[in-house]
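Section 3.1: Structural characterization of target chains.
Under the original work plan, the team committed to producing a structural model for every single-chain target entering the pipeline before any wet-lab resources were allocated. The record below documents one such target. The sequence was received from the expression subgroup and is listed exactly as submitted; it comprises 175 residues.
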Amino acid sequence: MNLEAVTDAAHPMYQRALALYRLSFPLHEQRELPSQERILLDREYHFCLVCDQSVFIGLVLYWETDDAIYIEHLCILPELRNKKYGEQVLSALKARHKTVILEIDPPADSVSERRKGFYERCGFVENPYWHVHPPYHRGNSGHSLVVMTYPKPISPKEYRAFNEYLCGKIMDKAF
């Protein structure tokens, strides 16, 4: 498994990757296309195809700083799920020896409970912070999510730094 960076919208797999992104996440959790294309130029943002040899199997979109990796979106083609590709992507990011941060929906149904269990099996832990992800679309409100981190919970100071980065840098580019 390897990660292939996409750095502009002219990449031959960009549209196919966007189709998987649109299929995998509810509209309120998706960036608008102009925002997605703008952030491709940001050196901290990584739009990566997940490939098995040369076969496209998924997508991981993340932000990387000196201290942390924030996974904004991770998805595997539906027909290839449950083949450990998601675990391999997470292992590749965890191997960089930084705090890895992601958000999930609160475990309120069987799907969200399974998702939380997946991340826990991969070594992520739930953090106790009340967290609202800012909206990706004008006119929408933010939505409550659970912050999970690897390899350990983050301190209140680390959470504040993450949330400031999310609200200031990452979501500043949403519109």
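The beta strands are 2-6, 45-52, 55-64, 68-76, 99-104, 125-126, 131-133, 143-150.
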